[in-house]
Each structure stands twice: as C-alpha cells, then as structure tokens.
C-alpha cells in the first residue's frame, strides 16, 4: 500500500510541476490554465450561454399543463407524453437519443487523433432500425405497460427475469449518463478552467428542476431544439474550418494523406479495437439492444398513436441518423486539416484529446461574439436534455419494476406515485453526478461509452430474443442465460481493464508549424531537471516495479496465462455479440431440459411469424394458451389504429399450479389506459 501511495505521489508531483509552467508569451494557454480573455468579451459569452440555457430549458416546459390535460393525468403525461407528439418531433428525439452529446464532442477528437474506424459503426447502427421494426415492435407495442420489462414477466411468468433485465438497463444507463454529464465539463474546463465537479453540480441542479416540472413531452421538445442547434453549430464549424484549410478538396486530401480516411478495413482479428467487421456486427447487436430493449426508446414508441407511425419513425431515422452521425465526423476532418501541422495537444495548448473542439471554437471564432457561448450552451443543454429524458426512464423503471411492489406503495394514488417517481429521479441525478467525476480516468468519452454499452447489451438483447423468437424458452432458461452472459462479459471487461494495455496509439501529428512560444511549455530542457529530481528521489520504488515486471514476464510463459491474455484482449466491440449468443444458447438448452406444463403462455407474446411456424412444426406439441386462430383483418386494422391492447385481465388457468396466464383481450383507445 505504501509503495502504491508513493507511486501516485510521483504522478501528482509530475503533473503539478509540468502543468503549472507559465506561458507568459503564449497566445493561448497551457493545460489547466484558462485562456486569457478580455473581461468584456468573456462577460458577453457568459450572457449568451445563460440566455440560451434559460430559453432552451423554459420553452419545452411552457406547455406542461396542456400535456397533462391531453394525457388525462399528470403521471401519464410524465411517462408517455400524452400521446400527442408529432412524428417529426419523435424522429428527431429518437435520433438525438441515439447519438447524444458525446458524439458532438467525442467524434471530432476521435477522428483527429485515431482516424475514421469508429465512423464505420454507422453501418451497424442503421441496420438496427429495420431489425427492431420487424422483430420487436409487432410483439410488445400493443402491450401498454409502463415498463418494457413487464413484457418479460408476462412471457416467462418470472419476476426475477423482469427485475434482472431492468437492473441491467439501470446499470447501463447510469454508467452512460455519467459519461454524458462528464462531456460538457470537459468543454467548460478547457475554455474557462472551471473544475469538473462544479460543472457537473450545475448540470445536476438544472436537471433536478427540469425533472420536477416537466415530463417526457418536455424532454422531446428539448431534444428537438438541441438537435437543430447542434446541426447549425456543426455546420458553422465545418464551413469556417474548411475555408481556413483551403477548401473541401484540400480537407479531403489532407485526411487521406494523414491516414485518417481508412474504410472497409477487414482485419478479421477480434483483438483489434474496431475494424469494419466488428463495426457492422458488434454495433448491430449493441444498437438492437438499445433501440429494441431499452425503456428510453420503447417509452417513446408507445407515446405514438399507432404502430404504423412507429414504423415510419424507425425507417425515417436511417437517413436522419446517418446525416447527424456523420456531421460530427466531418467536423473532425476539418479540424485535422486545420491543425495537422500544429497539434494543440502536442504543443501543450490542451490537456486531453476531447478538448480539441472547444479549443478550436476559442481559437478561430473569437471574431464572432457569442459563438463560444452558444457552443458551450449547446453542449450543456445537450447533456441536460439527454439526462432529463433518461432520468425519466430510469425513475419509471425503478418505480414500476422494484419499488411499486412494496406493501407500503401498493394502494397509493397516481399523484403520490408521480411524486415518488420524481424523488427517485432526484436520487439518480445525484448518483450520476458523483460517478461522472471518475469518467476522466477512462480513455475518452467515446471509449467509455462504447465499453459500457457493449458489456451490458448482450444479456439484455439475449433475453428479449428468447422471449420473442424461441417458444421453447422458459423462465428458468432466461434467468440462467442472463446470469451466465453477465458473468462472462463482466469477466472479459474486468480482465481487459486489469491486465491488458488498452491505450490506443494516436495517429501521427506535428507541431512544426506552431509558433515557438506555443511549444515552450513542453521544451524538454525545461522538464529534464524536474524528471531527474523525481527519479532520483523515488529510484527504489521504480526498481521494485521493474522486478515485479520481470516476475510477470516469467509467468507469461504459462499457456493458461497466455490464453487468458488473448481472451481478455478481445475488443469490447464483440462483448454484445458474445453475451447475446451465450444468453440465447444457455436459455434454449435450459428451457428444453426444464420444460414443464406450467410454462404455458399466450402465443401472442411471441413474434407472429414464430408463433405460426411453431404451430406447424413436428415433434413435441407446443403449450400455448391462446385459441389456435388468426386475427381477422378487422382486428389487425383496429390494432394498427391504436397503441391498443392493454394487458388488463390476468386470469389464472386452473390445473396449472397457480401459474398466471396473461390474456390480451381488451382494446381501448390510448388515452383511457392509465
């Protein structure tokens, strides 16, 4: 423990001595030093920032009373937006929720320092929309439940499966939202020198206020405002940087010459961080898990008035997401062309790759008053709208799947339920703020987001596939599959973090075109004395570390150790694929071995095509509780005109050991459900 403490003291000592070097004749700033600004100019930027935040936050709340009146109750308006959201607004909200503010800040820096490999994840992302539309929407769109994970209890008759799936969603979203909260703190720290904790605390306070006053409809309107703002701001960045770099042709040629534009790179090596194959398959599994099995999106689908509108939204998002996703990468192309010979990271003008975009705004847009404030406001508000809509889903799932079943809450009114949901949201906001302070220890916002999403997607997608596509699966198989999937993916993720050097080498840049003053802070002659003093002081510690490395090299000759290292080295892009396959295989096998008469369920909880095929397959007869008939065309038309088919009657079939069978019989307009 003492040696470890000394080791960390070395790092902190070095950081303090290196980062506190003054740049008296530097035009910009050294790491951890705010830019020298004219006070009047800074005041104007702060005014623009504050006005934008207030306007974009207050406008979505303007119609909250109308939302409650349209929904019939405040609780329904908070959870389902009253069912009156337009298709265009919902499409932009889904696209916005797909990308998040992380893409706005993280993707440009990803291209500048690591190239376009992550850009290809767009392939898997757009393929996921038709898959979700064809596989999941026909199954549970008509089941009006406040939590999508209630469907799993209906299908498997198991509260354990439902709660484990809900807990997986909660864990994933809390970790991802920690990255989201961290994102604007990077920009504010880079530009104003504001501590990360202060920015996170301010964002949390505004989120709590928004959560108390607004609901899903307000969050969707905030998403629309934020999406349009990000498009306009990104367009301004692209135009200005392209002009400064010499035009579109020059930008493209610079990126090709610099090795940034490498597409269709099939390495067939699962240990590569990302290549084209993993971008297609790995991202497809992650995206299907997000769009089809996550409360955040299903909650939006069920706020629409018909299934046909949901299909239009999902298919319309293919071009919308393609454009919005690529916009940030084009910004990165322009930034690389602009700074390829004067890298702000190498020259010491920024302290982390994710700060390159804030630095660019500060560097090149000083001539346009208010642009920096608008940029900071866009990032802050983007994180705010994303956080608010997800806090809505987190608190709803926590209430519906965990808290509401407690004896103390069973008979409370809708108003009391809404109060409890909002209190849960406040608790989540505080937890997420605290966790966001640790994101800085992961390699960038993109890396952190991809690792969390992939590690938790496999079990969640696997259990929903078991429920919709595999009639032989039962509660025991689903629970076993999820547990085994979680164990394997967590084992892989922990092994990767602890034993594998996950640091990715940056692509080469240069500082040869920088003025001498801007690289003065990193002059090796200035740092030599500092490093030598530290090394001489802690030489025994480094000798102990070196001897431990020698021992590890001897152990690495072990075959088992080498195999584990290869296993841990598998890219996180494959975690979702591995987790899904493990969950499905285990679930099917255990389902076959433990199949009982009490596993009967309503066949309409399966995908319609699977249900028809299962009835015609030879072998063991399938145990369905629904009469063997097809719905008439009139019934299909009726179901398409409403978000219909509430699960209202939970009848108990005699002779099935008390197992509850859920019937889907009553068709009501959407507005009468809660």
From TrEMBL:
Domain 4Fe-4S ferredoxin-type residues, every copy: 8-40
Transmembrane regions listed in the UniProt entry: 41-62, 78-101, 121-143, 164-185, 197-217, 224-243, 276-293, 314-339, 365-388, 420-442, 448-470, 477-499, 572-594
Region: Disordered, residue numbers: 620-641
Comp. bias (Basic and acidic residues): 627-641
Compartments where located: Cell membrane
UniProt-listed Pfam families: SSF
InterPro entries: 4Fe4S_Fe-S-bd, 4Fe4S_Fe_S_CS, Na/Glc_symporter_sf, Na/solute_symporter, Sodium:Solute_Symporter_SSF
CC per GO annotation: plasma membrane
Gene Ontology terms for molecular function: symporter activity
Lipid bilayer topology: Multi-pass membrane protein
Keywords: Cell membrane, Ion transport, Membrane, Sodium, Sodium transport, Transmembrane, Transmembrane helix, Transport
Domain of life: Eukaryota
GO biological process, one term: sodium ion transport
PANTHER family tied to this protein: SODIUM-COUPLED MONOCARBOXYLATE TRANSPORTER (PTHR42985), SODIUM-DEPENDENT MULTIVITAMIN TRANSPORTER (PTHR42985:SF2)
Family recorded in the similarity comment: Belongs to the sodium:solute symporter (SSF) (TC 2.A.21) family.
Official protein name in the record: 4Fe-4S ferredoxin-type domain-containing protein
Record organism: Pieris brassicae (White butterfly)
């Amino acid at each position: 423990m003492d040696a470890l403490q000394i080791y960390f003291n070395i790092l902190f000592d070095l950081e303090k001595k290196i980062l506190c070097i003054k740049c008296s004749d530097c035009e910009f700033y050294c790491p951890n030093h705010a830019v020298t600004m004219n006070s009047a100019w800074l005041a104007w930027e702060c005014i623009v920032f504050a006005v934008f935040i207030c306007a974009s936050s207050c406008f979505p709340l303007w119609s909250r009373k109308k939302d409650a009146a349209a929904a019939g109750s405040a609780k329904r308006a908070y959870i389902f937006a009253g069912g009156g959201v337009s298709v265009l607004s919902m499409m932009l909200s889904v696209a916005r929720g797909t990308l998040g503010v992380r893409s706005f800040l993280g993707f440009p820096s990803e291209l500048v320092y690591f190239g376009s490999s992550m850009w290809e994840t767009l392939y898997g992302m757009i393929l996921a929309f038709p898959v979700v539309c064809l596989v999941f929407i026909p199954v549970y769109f008509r089941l009006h439940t406040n939590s999508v994970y209630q469907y799993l209890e209906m299908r498997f008759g198991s509260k354990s499966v439902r709660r484990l799936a809900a807990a997986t969603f909660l864990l994933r979203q809390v970790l991802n939202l920690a990255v989201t909260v961290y994102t604007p703190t990077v920009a504010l720290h880079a530009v104003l020198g504001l501590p990360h904790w202060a920015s996170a605390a301010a964002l949390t306070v505004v989120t709590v206020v928004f959560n108390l006053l607004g609901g899903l409809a307000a969050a969707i309107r905030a998403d629309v405002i934020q999406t349009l703002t990000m498009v306009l701001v990104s367009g301004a960045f692209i135009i200005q940087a392209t002009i400064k770099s010499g035009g579109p042709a020059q930008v493209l040629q610079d990126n090709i010459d610099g090795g940034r534009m490498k597409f269709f790179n099939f390495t067939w090596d699962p240990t590569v961080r990302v290549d084209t194959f993993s971008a297609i398959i790995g991202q497809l599994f992650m995206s299907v898990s997000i769009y089809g099995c996550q409360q955040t999106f299903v909650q939006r689908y069920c706020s629409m008035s018909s299934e046909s509108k949901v299909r239009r939204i999902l298919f319309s998002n293919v071009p919308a997401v393609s454009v919005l996703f690529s916009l940030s990468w084009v910004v990165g192309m322009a930034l690389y062309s602009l700074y390829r010979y004067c890298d702000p990271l190498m020259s010491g003008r920024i302290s982390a790759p994710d700060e390159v975009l804030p630095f660019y705004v500060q560097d090149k847009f000083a001539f346009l008053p208010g642009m920096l404030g608008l940029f900071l406001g866009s990032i802050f508000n983007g994180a705010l709208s994303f956080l608010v809509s997800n806090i809505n889903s987190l608190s709803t799932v926590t209430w519906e799947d965990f808290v509401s079943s407690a004896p103390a809450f069973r008979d409370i009114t809708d108003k009391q339920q809404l109060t409890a949901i909002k209190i849960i949201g406040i608790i989540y906001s505080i937890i997420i703020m605290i966790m966001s302070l640790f994101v800085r220890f992961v390699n960038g916002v993109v890396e952190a987001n991809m690792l969390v999403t992939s590690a938790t997607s496999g079990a969640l997608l696997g259990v929903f596939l078991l429920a919709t596509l595999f009639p032989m699966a039962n509660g025991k198989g689903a629970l076993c599959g999820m547990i085994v999937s979680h164990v394997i993916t967590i084992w892989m993720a922990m092994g990767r973090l602890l034993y594998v050097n996950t640091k990715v080498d940056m692509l080469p840049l240069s500082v040869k075109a920088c003025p001498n003053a801007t690289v003065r802070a990193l002059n090796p002659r200035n740092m030599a004395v500092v490093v030598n003093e530290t090394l001489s002081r802690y030489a025994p510690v480094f000798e102990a570390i070196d001897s431990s490395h020698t021992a590890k090299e001897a152990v690495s000759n072990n075959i088992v150790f080498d195999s584990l290292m290869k296993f841990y080295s598998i890219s996180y892009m494959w975690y979702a694929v591995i987790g899904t396959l493990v969950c499905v295989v285990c679930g099917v096998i255990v389902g076959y071995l433990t199949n009982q008469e009490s596993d009967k369920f309503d066949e309409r909880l399966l995908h319609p095509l699977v249900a028809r095929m299962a009835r015609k397959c030879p072998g063991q007869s399938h145990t369905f509780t629904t009469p063997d008939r097809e719905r008439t065309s009139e019934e299909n038309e009726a179901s398409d005109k409403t978000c219909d088919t509430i699960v209202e009657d939970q009848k108990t079939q005699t002779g099935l050991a008390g197992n509850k069978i859920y019937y889907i019989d009553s068709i009501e307009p959407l507005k009468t459900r809660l």
